[in-house]
């Protein structure tokens, strides 16, 4: 069983038990729609009440950014794509705007992809080796970073997408975390690399030593990504009740 479901199930069960203790008939039949700016991208969310102090909510976040940079002598043309779909159970324990929201990111499509190139005769690092890109067969390749598709989350915030009473709008603010486990990085290179004096040129795909250096480089990248197993969430938006 996916560990994300194991972690998320107790939170959702708690929310359902709380909801069960609320009088459903007292909830107004409205729908709230919000537009937000978040650390996971721009977001659109929809919420509806199931009791006087409980809402159910779902939302989609998206963002795209392209950027070129250099890493260990490799030129990387990178593209960051944030895509996620999440559901929440919003509990308003005091009847006001403050809420606690356990949830599940049902689709985590956040990823980073990059095209790697090392110009001819340029020095670069691979694992623990210092190399030169062979001018007769320059080094090229690709890199990717991806997350687990499903992840539990927990948010706290202020503001109700479906305000009780006559007021129709709110400015919701939330902070919290998504526990996605550490993302996985993959690095693939082809072409030929030479020692620093320009001799002993070898194919990266065929040479066992260079393949070992490639694995070392990939492991270093994965170690640097380990803090991202917990993604911080901060959001601010505007909602309207229909």
Main attributes?
242 residues, mainly beta, Porin, 4-stranded antiparallel sheet, 2 helices, elongated
Largest β sheet strand count, sense and barrel closure: 8 strands, antiparallel, barrel
Question: H/E element string?
Answer: HEEEEEEEEEEEEEEEHE
Strand content: over 45%
Helicity, in percent?
A: 10-25%
* Widest β-sheet, arrangement of strands: 1-2-3-4-5-10-12-16
CATH class annotation: Mainly Beta
Principal-axis shape: elongated
Give a written overview of the molecule.
This protein is mostly beta strands. It has one domain: Porin (Beta Barrel), CATH 2.40.160. The protein contains two helices and 16 strands. It has helices at 3-20, 208-225; strands spanning 32-38, 41-51, 54-71, 74-91, 99-108, 111-118, 123-126, 129-133, 139-146, 151-158, 169-170, 173-179, 184-190, 192-194, 202-203, 230-241. The protein has an eight-stranded antiparallel barrel with strand order 1-2-3-4-5-10-12-16. A four-stranded antiparallel β-sheet has the order 7-8-14-15. A hairpin with a 7-residue loop joins strand 14 and strand 15 (202-203). The chain is elongated and about 80 Å long. The model is unreliable at 1-27 (pLDDT under 50).
List the helices and strands and how they pair.
Blueprint (H helix, E strand, L loop, with lengths): L2 H18 L11 E7 L2 E11 L2 E18 L2 E18 L7 E10 L2 E8 L4 E4 L2 E5 L5 E8 L4 E8 L10 E2 L2 E7 L4 E7 L1 E3 L7 E2 L4 H18 L4 E12 L1
């Amino acid at each position: 069983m996916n560990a994300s479901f194991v972690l998320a199930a107790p939170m959702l069960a708690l929310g359902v038990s709380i909801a069960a203790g609320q009088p459903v008939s007292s909830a107004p039949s409205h729908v709230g729609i919000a537009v937000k700016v978040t650390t996971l991208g721009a977001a659109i969310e929809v919420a509806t009440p199931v009791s006087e102090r409980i809402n159910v909510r779902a939302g989609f976040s998206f963002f795209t950014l392209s950027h070129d940079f250099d890493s260990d002598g490799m030129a990387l043309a990178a593209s960051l794509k944030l895509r996620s779909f999440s559901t929440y159970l919003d509990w308003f324990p005091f009847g006001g705007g403050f809420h606690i929201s356990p949830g599940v990111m049902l689709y985590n499509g956040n990823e980073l992809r990059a095209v790697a190139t090392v110009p001819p005769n340029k020095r670069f690092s691979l694992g623990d080796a210092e190399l030169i890109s062979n001018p007769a067969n320059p080094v090229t390749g690709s890199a990717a970073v991806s997350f687990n598709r499903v992840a539990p989350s927990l948010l706290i915030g202020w503001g109700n997408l479906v305000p009780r009473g006559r007021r129709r709008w709110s400015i919701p603010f939330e902070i919290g975390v998504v526990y996605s486990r550490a993302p996985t990085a993959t690095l693939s290179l082809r072409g030929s690399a030479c020692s620093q004096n320009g001799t002993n040129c070898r194919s990266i795909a065929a040479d066992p030593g260079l393949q070992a250096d490639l694995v070392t480089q990939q492991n270093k990248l994965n170690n640097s990504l380990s803090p991202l197993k917990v993604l911080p969430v901060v959001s601010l938006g505007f909602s309207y009740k229909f």
